Amino acid sequence: MFYQQCRRLNIPVTFGVTIVDFEESASQRTGTAIAADGLRFTADIIIAADGLGTKSHKLVAGEVIRAIPTGFAICRTFYRLDPEKHAALCKKLTELTRPDCRCFSGEGFHCISVLGNDSVFVGITIPDDGTAQESWAESITNEEFIRLLPMTDSFDPLALEIIRNIPENSTTKWQLCWRDPQPKWTSPEGRIIQLGDSAHAFIPSSMSGATTALEDGLSLAECLRLAGKEHAHLATKVHELMRLRRVSILQRVGFSNRREMHQKGGFEEIVKNETDGGSMALGKWVWTHNAEKYATENFAKARQCMETSTEFQHTNIPKGFKWEDWSMKQELEKEQRGISTPDLKLNGDWSIY
């Protein structure tokens, strides 16, 4: 979809290029992405949306910031059903009246499957046994996948059947890595800006990593439109100011959710103790947010606060939220101590209505 839109707008797309460095020029008012073969891409603004392994930290943060393991690994697969090879499974799934999401969890793990009439997705998060790599190149067999599932005897038979029918070598296993919330996403001159995972690493249990990256795109585009070419470098800074705190809270949600899912009793325990705005709830402040509209309505105010060094009042976070810095180390210590109370979601208004 993204590629087709670029083609429609006559935006050239170059494939097979590895970006290894970034630089900017205050005098030329440009940013540059430098490829491994020496090719240089120069523009008013360079958006480093190149994921967890981005090389933009050296310029943005002043140092190389390596991702660190979270202590967990994840296995994921998606495949389309073959009516001949998967006849029995196809028959069961064609009976679904709508897509079906099934969640299983217990002490130290959670598994999610999404079923359609002709396709399935399965993912499991488990403690890393030391064999997972920070790479999407490692695959596992269906038998290995089954062995990773705790409490197999009590699993949904359909979920097990789905796993047994996965095409060979199509399940990817990788090490979940993370960077602590960053204090900035932009280079000193504002000509390079990080977006998505390069700016803010999410663990899957946040349930909003991809959505947050899309919000980034909407917000940044609107800020650039409002600032214009002459002040494009200010647009990146204003975008950063408006979104840093919202994104940091959403990152932390991943750890809060994982503690809830991985408690003894799993989802059954969550449902039993469920309250509005409590365990696993994504408050309305998350899913009712319109990032483009927020940028439109708050750009001038945020820019003024930035230029006058006054505090910007964030309204894209839970109402009444009291800001506090945090780190992955602190969150992992809570997990190790067995703290399952959703303390984050008691800070401000997390109601869903």
What features would you describe in this structure?
This protein has 353 residues and is of the alpha+beta class. The protein folds into 3 domains: 17-66 and 189-201, FAD/NAD(P)-binding domain (3-Layer(bba) Sandwich); 68-177, no CATH class; 202-353, no CATH class. It is 34% helix and 20% strand. It contains 11 helices and 11 strands. The strands form 3 sheets. The protein has a 6-stranded antiparallel beta sheet. Helix 6 packs antiparallel against helix 7 (232-261), helix 6 (209-227) packs across helix 10 (291-308) and helix 7 (232-261) runs parallel beside helix 11. It is globular. Keywords: Monooxygenase, Oxidoreductase. Belongs to the paxM FAD-dependent monooxygenase family. GO terms for molecular function: monooxygenase activity. Its cofactor is FAD.
Largest sheet entry: 6 strands, antiparallel
Structural class: alpha+beta
Beta-strand share of residues: 15-25%
Extract low-pLDDT stretches.
none
Q: Portion of residues in helices?
A: 25-40%
Kindly provide the radius of gyration, computed on alpha-carbon positions and rounded to a whole number of angstroms: 22 Å
N-end to C-end Cα span: 33 Å
The ordered H/E elements are HEEEEHEHEEEEHHEEHHHHHH
- Major sheet: arrangement of strands: 6-7-8-5-10-9
Number of helices: 11
- Outline: globular
Counting structural domains, the number is 3
The total strand number stands at 11
Q: What's the rounded overall pLDDT mean?
A: 91
